[in-house]
Specification:
Length: about 450
């Protein structure tokens, strides 16, 4: 047997890579992990966590507006961007430090630097004059923002990664894109008082989500002051003395201070040396893996966004656990991607789990029953706000299993986590109905929906 420096070498210290490294080291194996930036990866450093802090900061303005309806008054309330940035960066540094400390406690060697594959068992740490051998290698390098590099003036635009570190809060921003990141940052900047425009080339935002969710959210975010332009994209960006002029394909021009592209993310595979190790990519440019995360190289695995299967932090962590169980515990496991709940931290937020209505109609042989309600939540009704909640259950007409839950409104991310348990367990609509409501709450609507959607009440709604 060959003598390697490590039993496992992990490339990328994000959530998935860190979990796999720690579990394997705690199991008695020699493990090292390389990170070219900061420990914590996209989620902790430049994704979910700092974004959620920004969402919470931006929600305060609406909370203050609602509070006035309850008799509160606020004089000289203001937001200071530099103060927020400093507090956010201190917390991110603390979290990154915890990740690094936990690696050390588990016995994992942390290698600071960019690791590239030299062959199937060897990596080089760029610029460090160091090569390392390992019996097995795990690639967990995540993804990076994509923007159209051939667009004239694209050099003047930023992505979500730069948005976390803007030196000053702009007065005007245009965000290109219609997915999670685009609608979340549109809510963030609008909530912080920035004149915000969202432009998307498709017919509606949040492609892949239920059509009722897409339509409802588009209307609600406009109530928050976000200008939404659909079916259009950039022709060019021109820098002038007063700002950035966005020339759009529909003939419109719009001047802003910042242009942010949130037009998708791509697997971070560039210059990793994959070909030298026999690791192949699929047609979409992600690392090709089998259900157990094994690549086309016998001793190399890959997990997380670099495989472009389901790009969510908790999924990468579960893939890491499955990898460890399969490779080091003689307990082959693969993650089940069915009925995984997800949230969009837009304003208002979205929580979904399971099938959209369209997906269910394609997969349920005897059709579907659909239950929908739209209402003004108690908290907002008291203040006169016209913001409305959407709740939707999609039910297999044959088995009566609830196969999809879709919520748009306050606290929907919290509700969907619990609803996901019921969907994953395969509970029927009758079992949902047999659950006693908690009153007065928004969530009680999920167990009190009785009327199926029909063409007649759809038109009335």
């Amino acid at each position: 047997m060959a003598d390697y420096d490590y039993d496992l070498f992990v490339i990328g210290a994000g959530s998935g890579g860190v979990r796999a490294a720690r579990l394997t080291a705690l199991g008695g194996k020699r493990v090292a992990i390389a990170e070219e930036f900061r420990v914590g990866g996209t989620c902790v450093i430049r994704g979910c966590v700092p974004k959620k802090f920004m969402v919470m900061a931006s929600e305060v303005s609406y909370a203050l507006e609602i509070a006035e309806g309850y008799g509160w008054s606020f004089e000289n309330a203001k937001f200071d961007w530099p103060t927020f940035l400093e507090a956010k960066d201190v917390e991110i540094a603390r979290l990154s430090g915890i990740y690094a400390a936990n690696l050390g406690k588990a016995g994992v060697e942390l290698v600071h630097g960019r690791a590239i594959l030299k062959d199937a068992h060897t990596v080089e740490i760029v610029g460090k004059n160091r090569t390392i051998t390992a019996e097995k290698i795990l690639i967990a390098t995540g993804g990076r923002p994509w923007k159209p590099e051939d667009l004239p003036g694209i050099e003047h635009a930023i992505t979500s990664e730069e948005a976390f570190h803007l030196p000053e809060l702009p007065k005007r921003i245009l965000i290109a894109g219609g997915g999670y990141i685009a609608v979340e940052f549109a809510g963030i900047f609008a909530g912080l008082g920035v004149e915000t425009t969202l432009i998307y080339r498709g017919p509606n935002i949040l492609r892949g989500f239920d059509d009722d969710v897409r339509a409802h959210l588009a209307g609600e975010i406009e109530k928050r002051g976000i200008k939404v332009i659909l079916g259009c994209q950039h022709k060019s960006i021109e820098k002038t003395a007063t700002g950035l002029v966005n020339h759009l394909e529909n003939g419109m021009t719009l001047e802003t201070d910042v242009v942010m592209f949130a037009t998708g993310r791509i697997p971070h595979v560039k210059d990793l040396g994959l070909e030298t190790a026999g690791v192949e990519l699929n047609d979409e440019g992600a690392i090709k893996v089998d259900p157990y995360s094994k690549t086309t190289a016998d001793n190399i695995w890959a997990i997380g966004d670099v495989t472009d299967r389901m790009n969510l932090t908790p999924v990468a962590i579960r893939e890491a656990v499955a990898f460890h169980q399969t490779v080091y515990r003689d307990n082959p496991q693969h993650f089940d991607y069915e009925a995984v709940a997800t949230a969009v931290f837009s304003q208002p937020p979205v929580g979904v789990v399971g099938l959209t209505e369209a997906e269910a109609r394609r997969s349920c042989s005897k059709g579907v029953d659909v239950y929908v309600t739209r209402f003004r939540p108690m908290k907002y009704a008291f203040t006169g706000s016209d913001e409305r909640v959407l709740m939707k259950l999609v039910v297999d007409a044959d088995s009566q299993r609830v196969v999809g839950v879709h919520i748009v409104g306050p606290d929907s991310p919290e509700m969907i986590q619990l609803a996901a348990i019921a969907v994953k367990a395969g509970l029927t609509k009758a079992q949902w109905d047999a659950t006693c409501a908690v009153h007065p709450t928004m969530a009680e609507e999920l167990v009190t929906l009785k009327e199926k959607q029909t063409p007649a009440n759809m038109a009335a709604g």
